[in-house]
Amino acid sequence: MMEWIDVEKQCTGLDEKLIDRTKGFLDKDEGLRLYQIGLEASRLGPCLEIGSYCGKSTLYLGAACRKNNSTLFAVDHHTGSEEQQPGEGYFDPETYDIRQGRMDTFPLFRNTIIDGGLENTVVPIISRSEVAARHWATPLGMVFIDGGHTFAAAYTDYNSWIGHILPGGYLLIHDIFKNPDEGGQAPHYIFKLAAASGLFQVLSMTKTLGVLRRIECGELPEDLPGV
Ligand SMILES: C[S@@+](CC[C@H](N)C(=O)[O-])C[C@H]1O[C@@H](n2cnc3c(N)ncnc32)[C@H](O)[C@@H]1O
Fold it and tell me: Coil, strand or helix: which one is 31?
């Protein structure tokens, strides 16, 4: 695993202080893995994340895309997931807009993108993931799923977007807990669907971040019978 200091030396685009002060749910090692995979993936095509919140993951992926003059599409309706609503465990009052009477993380997200110098790299899409996917036609070097954590939301994200991943591209899924006592099982469920699909090679995880690579045309999975 690359250390923070090594990555920072190689890439002046990652601003550790900005990342630290940005609200979010991403561990630093997971962020650095996002950055590493983002560097490879954004050479293949644009990248897309589902679930930006205030932009922590966007800072890592955006910095990687910027290095390759690529684009990061950042999809989020910005009204929060179930567990982030008032009264729930992950509610943050600073994300609540009194006038709208609901959460709105877009102003915080926008400031993060400006502070991170990512306005020419990140394209925010303020939408439910399945609505954004409805007429999507651009092949992607990476899809990062970190949106709603119900089974319905996770499955919808998986089903809506995996068809757009280029051969050799990546599918990343956050918050995978193999032990149900440690966390919800929806991300783990779609990770297992992808692993069993025959379309992806499973790479090593970083903490709760699952990493899969879309098998190239003509390439065979290592566990194919007879190989
Ligand atoms: C766990 S947070 C994302 C955390 C973020 N990646 C980070 O690094 O801090 C989940 C986000 O997904 C968004 N979300 C939930 N369901 C969604 C859906 N169906 N479409 C788009 N965004 C969704 C929420 O608004 C919330 O901002």
Answer: helix
